[in-house]
Amino acid sequence: MAIDFRRSNSTVCRNWLESTLLYLEGAAVLEATRERRPPHFHVSVFPDQYDKYVQSLMNNSSRSASTHIVRNGESLWRIARVYGTSVSRLKEVNKIRGDQIVPGQILSLPGG
Fold first, then answer.
1. Which residue of 18, 24, 48, 85 could cross-link 29, Cys pair, CB 3.0 to 4.6 Å?
2. 63-112 adopts what CATH topology?
3. How far apart are CA 26 and CA 34, in angstroms?
4. What integer pLDDT is reported at residue 66 of this predicted model?
5. Is this prediction's pTM over 0.90?
6. Domain regions of the chain by residue span
């Protein structure tokens, strides 16, 4: 299935869409191409992989004690605070080098 998303003039919206598309590309759920004329993103969604991805999100939501699904607007600092851990520990457990996380990303929570 293919979808075209108009490129937003809002930097916040555009950054969110680009980071989410990159994350989902990395999860092999879709393939996205940024087109210049007119400015839009052409996105090919792979139905079987998408279905598996959604199922994994649903399965992980029932195991909320060990994982967290990042929601829009969340930060590592906020998530660490909610679960009573540190940002450095969250980054270590999830092998995150920078500070960027994206909506839909599944984070493992430190045990104990």
1. 24
2. Membrane-bound Lytic Murein Transglycosylase D; Chain A (3.10.350)
3. 16
4. 84
5. no
6. 1-51, 63-112
